[in-house]
């Protein structure tokens, strides 16, 4: 049964989405805020995400951009009352796969979701783990190993490491990490990233003979 996540704050639209997609026996989960939506897409796999363009806490384009930056290629159907050409183009360029204007026909929503399900990359469905050298992240059991030795990670540490392992050797700015893991706009005054990177380093340095996470002065961090 395909799993669909609807990130939407309007109860009428939520009920309509559930009604439309439950008929062909899709499993529908709902996130009523952008932050809850980001937490859900970062923590499990979905086959399709329907995403409201305007949410009370986050812009829908911020959410889809964070998904793509984190390497999550789940098809996204943007749903919005802002349906002019410029808005549709912005949504698609941000990483959306399709755009549905409100109010919408139930049949049209169902058809668009069906098309996105057919487009879903096979590699996404088959991906079960990430590997960078001797470092392994099991995406099913949500556990990490170095040279076969398992070590504990807190949920946010896991998401930070997953994002870095999807971009090995790439310099990742604090903004990129923050948007992928926490969502929303990066606040230069926050030390959340430094704290979690520090915790990850401490755990990895106890296992590896060489540092795996390096600071690129003035730029960000890189997983070697």
TrEMBL record:
Family matches, as SUPFAM superfamilies: CheY-like
Ranges of residues in domain Response regulatory: 3-117
Transmembrane segments: none
Pfam families found in the cross-reference section: Response_reg, Trans_reg_C
Annotated OmpR/PhoB-type domain residues: 127-224
UniProt keywords, alphabetically: DNA-binding, Phosphoprotein, Transcription, Transcription regulation, Two-component regulatory system
MF terms in GO: phosphorelay response regulator activity; transcription cis-regulatory region binding
GO cellular component: a single term: protein-DNA complex
DNA-binding region(s) from the entry: 127-224
Top-rank taxon, per record: Bacteria
GO BP of this protein: regulation of DNA-templated transcription
4-aspartylphosphate PTM sites in chain numbering: 52
InterPro entries, A to Z: CheY-like_superfamily, OmpR/PhoB-type_DNA-bd, Sig_transdc_resp-reg_receiver, WalR-like, WH-like_DNA-bd_sf
Protein name from the UniProt record: Transcriptional regulator
Organism the protein comes from: Caballeronia glathei
Lineage: Bacteria, Pseudomonadati, Pseudomonadota, Betaproteobacteria, Burkholderiales
């Amino acid at each position: 049964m395909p799993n669909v996540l609807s990130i939407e704050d309007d109860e009428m639209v939520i009920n309509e989405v559930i009604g439309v997609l439950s008929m062909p026996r899709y499993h529908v989960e709902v996130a009523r805020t952008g932050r809850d939506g980001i937490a859900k897409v970062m923590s499990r796999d979905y086959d399709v995400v329907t995403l409201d363009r305007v949410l009370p806490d986050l812009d829908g384009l911020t959410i889809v951009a964070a998904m793509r930056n984190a390497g999550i290629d789940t098809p996204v159907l943007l749903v919005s009352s802002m349906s002019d050409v410029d808005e549709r183009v912005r949504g698609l360029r941000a990483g959306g796969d399709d755009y549905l204007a409100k109010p919408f026909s139930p049949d049209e929503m169902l058809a668009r979701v069906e098309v996105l399900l057919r487009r879903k990359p096979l590699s996404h469905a088959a991906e079960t783990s990430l590997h960078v050298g001797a470092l392994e992240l099991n995406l099913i059991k949500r556990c990490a190993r170095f040279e076969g030795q398992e070590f504990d990670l807190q949920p946010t540490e896991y998401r930070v490491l997953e994002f870095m392992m999807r971009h090995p050797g790439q310099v990742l700015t604090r903004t990129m990490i923050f948007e992928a893991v926490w969502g929303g706009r990066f606040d230069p005054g926050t030390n959340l990233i430094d704290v979690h990177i520090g915790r990850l380093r401490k755990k990895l340095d106890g296992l590896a003979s060489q540092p795996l996470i390096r600071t690129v002065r003035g730029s960000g961090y890189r997983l070697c």
